[in-house]
Structures are given as C-alpha cells and as structure tokens.
Write a structure and sequence with these properties.
The strands form two sheets. The chain has a five-stranded mixed beta sheet with strand order 2-4-5-7-6, with helices on one face. Strands 1-3 form a two-stranded antiparallel sheet. The radius of gyration is 25 Å and the shape is elongated. It contains six helices and seven strands. The longest helix has about 70 residues. The chain is of the alpha+beta class. A hairpin with a 3-residue loop joins strand 6 and strand 7. The protein has two domains: about 110 residues, Up-down Bundle (Methane Monooxygenase Hydroxylase, Chain G, domain 1), CATH 1.20.58; about 140 residues, Histidine kinase-like ATPase, C-terminal domain (Heat Shock Protein 90), CATH 3.30.565.10.
Length: about 260
C-alpha cells in the first residue's frame, strides 16, 4: 500500500511539474512575442516622430530645385548632353520626393479621410491602379473577394498600404513573371487580407527583418513601403503575419478587427 502511495505521489509531482514547466514556457514565448511587438511599435513611433520633424523641411528645397531644373531644361542655350544630366537630376529628385511622401504617410494620424467599408471599393481601386503595372511585368493578378464585414479606416492610407503590398509582390517576380493572388475574407470578428506572390521569396533571416526601419531586400529599396504597411495596420489594431520560402514566394496574412464585432 505504501508503495502505491509513493508511486501515485511521484506521478502526481511529475505530471504537475510538467504542466508547470509547459505553462512557464508558453508564458515566456508569449512575453517574447509581446516584447517584439512593443519594440516594433516603438521603432515605428520613433520613425514617425523623425518623419514629421524633417520631411516638410526637406520637401521645400527639393520643390524649388526641381522647379529651377525644369526651367533650365527648356533653355535653348544648353546642349543635349547637359539636358541628359538635368533629366537624371529630375529623376533623382522625383525619387527623393517619393521617399519623403512615404515618411510623411508614417507620421499622419488615422483621422484625415475616415470611412466605414467592407473594402470592396478600395480593392477595386487598387486592382485598377496596379493592373497595368502587373501586366508590364508579366504578372497575373488573381483576385477573390468574399467579405461583408466592415472596418473603419483612413481610406488614403489603407489604399497606399495595399498598393505597397501589390507593388512588392509584383517586383519580386520582375523579369520572370508569375501570379499575385489576393483574397479578402471576413468574419464577425475580423477582416482578413491575404497577398501571395510566386517571386524570389526570402530566407529566415530576411523574413525576421521584414517591416523593420530601413530594411529592404531590393537593391535600391528604402524599406519605407513595408513600414507604411505595418504602421497602417498597427494603427487599426490589426496583425501581420508573413510566410516565405526562397525561390517559392511570399505570403502576407493581415487581420483587422471588424467594426461588426464592436
């Protein structure tokens, strides 16, 4: 009898200890994820503050410089070689303007053009905008919409967020073509956006750095496009999950809390 009592006590302690260890591991993993999300939010907030402080100041001299270069380009006193230099300068100024616009979109609050929508109108707009760009790069867009749930958002910012996702997916297939699959579904709790490409994909190291300030897998990229995506979705209380495999492609899974649930 004493033997069975000892045996039961040992089993109880073992099972209890195992349960405690499992719960502790789950808590540690949860805290680690929470910490990573907090750090990401802090990075985005810091970038937003810096963006707001310097972007307007930079845009003014760029606009003036661009104006004078355009006037100079119309001059009859310069040769074709000099006009070519001016053309390159204007191109680079345009690129700088785009970078500044991305910075400014990070700093904008979610309050300028708020709408309550199931995303159908916004998705049709983005498909129309990005269709020619996809065709140019021999990319086929497969689009599926099955959502009645509504979310409240800044229309301009969310459209830019979707355009950036389309653009990234299309450019990952540049040169070889492929398929960009976009699915919108919804439940009473959330709206889900899935954007999948068949592009070059990313390694585990590259995947872990997606959305971080100034990180890009593209040679001339700034990383601001995906920062805009992450910042916009975080403002809506949403989550982003990314899966990728080198040579296979990348999928963005985005979930945004539905207003229907509220």
């Amino acid at each position: 009898m004493e033997y069975w009592t000892i045996f039961i006590n040992v089993i109880t302690i073992h099972v209890g200890g195992t349960i405690v260890i499992v719960l502790l591991i789950e808590k540690i993993l949860y805290n680690e994820k929470l910490r990573e999300r907090y750090l990401d939010t802090e990075r985005l907030n810091l970038t937003s503050e810096l963006s707001a402080s310097i972007s307007h100041e930079l845009r003014n001299p760029l606009t003036v410089t661009s104006g004078f270069l355009q006037l100079l380009n119309k001059s009859t006193n310069i040769n074709e070689r000099e006009k070519e230099y001016i053309h390159y300068s204007l191109q680079e100024l345009g690129r700088a303007e785009k970078i500044i616009s991305d910075f400014l979109s990070l700093a904008k609050p979610q309050a300028e053009n708020m709408v309550l929508s199931n995303l159908k109108k916004e998705m049709e707009y983005v498909n129309n905008i990005m269709g020619p760009y996809a065709n140019f790069h021999k990319v086929d867009i497969q689009y599926e919409f099955n959502n009645t749930s509504k979310i409240k958002f800044d229309q301009n910012q969310l459209q830019q967020c979707l355009i950036n996702l389309y653009k990234n997916g299309i450019e990952s297939m540049k040169g070889k073509g492929g398929t960009l699959t976009v699915k919108i579904t919804g439940t009473n709790d959330e709206v889900e956006i899935q954007v999948r490409d068949t592009g070059i994909g990313m390694s585990k190291d590259e995947l872990s750095r997606v959305g971080k300030p100034y990180y890009s897998t593209k040679q001339e990229g700034t990383g601001l496009g995906l920062m805009v995506v992450y910042n916009t979705i975080h403002k809506l209380g949403g989550n982003i999950k990314v899966e990728s495999e080198k040579g296979i492609g990348t999928t963005f899974f985005i979930s945004i809390p539905s207003e229907d649930n509220n």
